[in-house]
Amino acid sequence: MQPNFGTNLVDDGDDTLLPESALTQGVIDTPQPVKPSLALGKYKKRVWIMLTDSDQIPPTGQFIGHNGDGFMLRPNVPAEVPVELLDILNIAVWDAPIVDQTTKQITGYTPRLRFPYQVVRKPQAAQAA
User: Fold this and answer.
1) 111 near 94, Cβ under 8 Å?
2) Low-confidence residues of the chain, pLDDT below 70?
3) Cβ–Cβ under 8 Å, residues 99 and 91
4) Cα 111 to Cα 40: distance, rounded to the nearest angstrom
């Protein structure tokens, strides 16, 4: 009985082993330590914000990335974020429908922030630290 889809395994009789140098070439003994970009001062200016509770944001929080750095922002929880994150939040928009109150028909769309936020003061617990 033959297989329906064939096979990609072909026994050509060549069981040549790779030389030991080919197996260890490019292997490093100790990996380079990863330095967090935040500790290096990559982001100089920071601001305290708080995401507004929204249907667009899951209860566990919203992940936002910038140049390989990730930030998890939870709704109604103040967070100190780089100013660059505000640009990401500001361009994340969606078209909300405009509904006529008398006919209940959609008459158009208006851009709204997908992740609304507000700039807040530094929380008291963070000021003491």
Assistant:
1) yes
2) 1-29, 31, 34-41, 125-129
3) no
4) 37
Taken as a whole, the chain contains a residue count of: 129
Q: What six digits make up the tokens of 28?
A: 């490093």
Q: Which residues pair with 48 in a beta bridge?
A: 80
pTM over 0.70: no
Phi, psi values for residue 23, rounded to 5°: -80, -30
49-85 pLDDT, tens digit per residue, is 999 988 888 888 999 988 888 889 999 999 999 988 9
Report residue 4 as tokens. Answer: 């329906």
User: Longest Cα pair distance anywhere in the chain, in angstroms?
Assistant: 81
The amino acid at residue 111 is P
Q: Is 120 left (phi over 0), alpha (psi -120 to 50) or beta?
A: beta
Neighbours of 96 (CB within 10 A): 13
Decide: helix, strand or coil at residue 81: strand
Q: Which of 88, 56, 55, 54 minimizes the C-alpha distance to 71?
A: 88
Determine the residue type at 72: M
